[in-house]
C-alpha cells in the first residue's frame, strides 16, 4: 500500500497493490478494512482499479464507516488472470495522525 501524500491530516489517494493467487471471474468484488485512525469521506472521489495498463473507474465503492470497511462492488467487469497484479485506488482520504 502507498499513498500520494504523507503529511498529517491531508487528503491523499491510497493505492493498494494486489497480486492474484487465483483467477478472478467477471465482476469480482473487494472488501477492504481500514484502521480507526483513517477517516474516509462518505463518498470517495477516487475509486478505480488499474489492470494491465487500463484504469477502470468504478461505480460501486461504498464506505461503511461503522464497520471500518470499504466495499468495491461494481464496475470492474474484467476477468483477472491468476498471478497478475492490479492496483486499487481509493481517495481522497485524510491521512491519519500516526
How would you describe what is shown here?
By secondary structure, this protein is mostly beta strands. 0% of the residues lie in helices and 47% in strands. The chain is built from no helices and 8 strands. Strands 1-2-8-4-5 form a 5-stranded antiparallel beta sheet, with no helix packed on it. A 3-stranded antiparallel beta sheet has the order 3-7-6, with no helix packed on it. The model has no long low-confidence stretch (mean pLDDT 90).
Q: What sort of overall outline do the alpha carbons produce when their principal axes are compared?
A: globular
Helix percent reads: under 10%
> What is the makeup of the main sheet?
5 strands, antiparallel
Q: What is the average of the pLDDT values? A: 90
The class by helix and strand makeup works out as mainly beta
- Uncertain segments of ≥5 residues (pLDDT<50)? none
Cα end-to-end separation: 16 Å
Number of strands: 8
Task: Bin the strand percentage.
Answer: over 45%
Task: State the strand order across the main sheet.
Answer: 1-2-8-4-5
The ordered string of helix (H) and strand (E) elements is EEEEEEEE
Supply the key terms.
single chain, 98 residues, 5-stranded antiparallel β-sheet, 3-stranded antiparallel β-sheet, 8 strands, 0% helix
Task: Draw up the topology in text.
Elements (H helix, E strand, L loop, with lengths): L1 E2 L7 E9 L10 E4 L12 E6 L2 E4 L2 E5 L4 E6 L10 E10 L4
Antiparallel strand pairs: 1-2, 2-8, 3-7, 4-5, 4-8, 6-7
